Amino acid sequence: MYKYLAKFFPDLGSRGLVVGYDTRAQETCGCSSERLARLTAAVMLCKDVPVYLFSTYVPTPFVPYAVKKLGAAAGIMVTASHNPKEDNGYKVYWNNGAQISSPHDKEILRCIEESVEPWPDSWNEKLPDSSALRSDPLQEICHLYMEELSSLCFHRELNSKTSLKFVHSSFHGVGHRYVQQAFKVFGFPQPIPVPEQKDPDPNFSTVSCPNPEEGESVLELSLQLAEKEGARVVVATDPDADRLAVAEQYDKCKWKVFTGNELAALLGWWMLYNWKETHPEVTEFKKVYMLATTVSSKILQTIARTEGFHFEETLPGFKWIGNKICDLTKMGHEVIFSFEESIGFLCGSMVPDKDGVSAAVVVAEMAAYLENKNLTLNQQLKNIYETYGYHISKTSYVICNDPPTVKRIFSRLRNFGGENLYPILCGGYNIVQVRDATTGYDNNQPDQKSVLPVTKSSQMVTFTLQNGIVATLRTSGTEPKIKYYTEFCAPPGESDISSLEEELKRVTAALVEEFLEPDKNNLIPRSV
User: Fold this and answer.
1) pTM for the whole thing?
2) How far apart are CA 439 and CA 426, in angstroms?
3) Rounded to whole angstroms, how far apart are CA atoms 295 and 300?
4) Torsion of CA 60, 65, 66, 69, to 10 degrees
5) Is the pLDDT of residue 218 over 70?
6) How far is the C-alpha of 195 from the C-alpha of 222, rounded, in Å?
7) Catalytic member of 32, 33, 81, 358
8) What is the 3-state secondary structure (H, E, C) of 443-487?
9) Minimum mean pLDDT range among 39-43, 70-74, 100-104, 273-277
């Protein structure tokens, strides 16, 4: 990392590096996130590079935010996010605050492979305590972040008067203190924390897995506390606080846990509504953008076509969204909302990465506003679908621990009906478009080349069916999973939701059976 940065940034010695970490700790090997962060800092400090090393754990979004605010050359966040407790890793951010993409990722890896023998001083994890080149950005960044966060608050007076109560779970991670501060910035009473999950616990002792995306089964303590306290809305941040899950109570003891796509419909509507309210003189949306990854719901695209603002999609992963935000901002455009279906949201563009802290309090304000209109979040979601058309999606995965099997599955798809012939049917419907992001193929383009970047290191194929269902199969970048995504985009006025859901369920099942062949390939279905 140092070698590549030194080569790329002649002024690295003045710009420095930002380093943050979460609360993970592998007791058996002593590789806690804090220790890895300190060793990362030591590598830079022993080469006289200034390091902004946070003195305590922080949400992942604080690192890219600090890179931008401090003018650093890059940033590193030591985290494995919502992965199992045995895992750890790190995210690398470039000087624009977005996660690194090609060619930086490949060049950094090459430099690592050329430097397998650590320098003696790089093992000195106490060096950050004595080096004059180390500084702690915690207080400054937290202050600036909360100050800028207030720009997303549109109804502070209403927030302070709401009768709604909120429960927050930080999933044993970093989110508690920062979500509490965010609610204060917006004028809310502090959300009620789940006591068993409020403080850091690297063993994630109260949940089967530390991923709030898994839904009601891992939100059990949050929902129980909400029922006890009379709180109608639950917000849950994942262990590094860059993702957000939301649940809302209905019919007294029942809960609606929103999918990432459903939350995006609500947040997209909310951000657009407030943008129009604060820009009454603007009649066109020439510079307004919303972004989503290609495996996410097309609801923002549908809203954009109706309302007149711009929508663009990217490859999966927020690094693509973050870099697209930077590009659009340079051109004078304003990105007001971005998301990925795996409960990753960014309201505004203050951080070029997903941000569960800001999203949590924005959801709270939206809920308070709707409460004042005698509406729930779920009722407003139905209003959105009735206006723009129902967008019903299914997302799940199968586990495959054998990379050759994964390769064989996708090779079969590309040669399904013979050499270089993709499937022509799925669930009895004709496939009218095939887009292969791994090879760069798209039969819907004049030159049959995809407009999305080619990603040869991962597998992703998208099929558009004759009935309008869009289905994608892709491999996870961090886990041994093959994920599948399907969505039925119905036109406004199509209100027979049950039939739409049944049809989507049937086609999704056919997609898995026909294209993945789970029994033949010993694939393990999602257990939740």
Assistant:
1) 0.93
2) 21
3) 13
4) 180
5) yes
6) 9
7) 81
8) CCCCCCECCCCCCCCCCEEEEEECCCCEEEEEECCCCCEEEEEEE
9) 100-104
Number of Cβ within a 10 Å radius of residue 26: 16
DSSP string covering 68-102, please? HHHT-SEEEEE--TTS-TT---EEEE-TTSSBP-T
Residue 257 binned pLDDT confidence (cut-offs 50, 70, 90) = very high
In tens, the pLDDT along 56-79 reads 999 999 999 999 999 999 999 999
Q: What is the pLDDT of residue 503?
A: 93
Question: Mean pLDDT, the chain, as a whole number?
Answer: 94
Pair type for strands 17-21 and 74-78: parallel
- Both tokens of 282, joined, read 């603007």
Q: How buried is 113 (Cβ within 10 angstroms: 0-12 exposed, 13-18 middle, 19+ buried)?
A: exposed
Q: In CATH, which superfamily holds the domain spanning 391-525?
A: Alpha-D-phosphohexomutase, C-terminal domain (3.30.310.50)
Domains 2-137 and 153-280+339-388 agree in fold: yes
Q: Summarize pLDDT for 278-303 with one digit per residue, the tens.
A: 998 887 888 999 999 999 999 999 99
d(CA 386, CA 391): 10
Q: Identify the pLDDT of residue 30.
A: 61
Token pair of 233 as six digits: 């809305």
C-alpha span between 103 and 345 (Å, rounded): 26
Secondary structure letter of residue 188 according to DSSP:
P
For residues 41 and 90, give the distance between their C-alpha atoms in angstroms, rounded to a whole number: 13
CATH homologous superfamily, domain 153-280+339-388: Alpha-D-Glucose-1,6-Bisphosphate, subunit A, domain 3 (3.40.120.10)
Mean pLDDT of 416-430: 95
pLDDT of residue 26: 63
For residue 512, pLDDT beyond 60: yes
Q: In whole angstroms, give the CA distance from residue 313 to residue 485.
A: 15
Pairing of strands 334-340, 288-293: parallel
From residue 153, alpha-carbon distances to 267, 270, 300, 459 in Å are: 13, 12, 22, 40
Give the model's pLDDT for residue 121: 83
Give dist(CA 271, CA 349) in Å, integer: 12
Amino acid letter at 437?
A
- Contacts of the segment 115-124: beta carbons below 8 A, 24+ positions apart: 115/3, 118/43, 119/43, 119/46, 121/42, 121/46, 122/39, 122/42, 122/43, 122/46, 123/39, 123/42, 124/42, 124/46
Catalytic-residue membership of 217: no
Q: What are the extents of the domains in the chain? A: 2-137, 153-280+339-388, 391-525
For domain 2-137, the CATH superfamily is: Alpha-D-Glucose-1,6-Bisphosphate, subunit A, domain 3 (3.40.120.10)
pLDDT, average across residues 133-156: 98
Q: CA 259 to CA 262: how far, in whole Å?
A: 5
Copy the structure tokens of residue 157. Answer: 């007076």
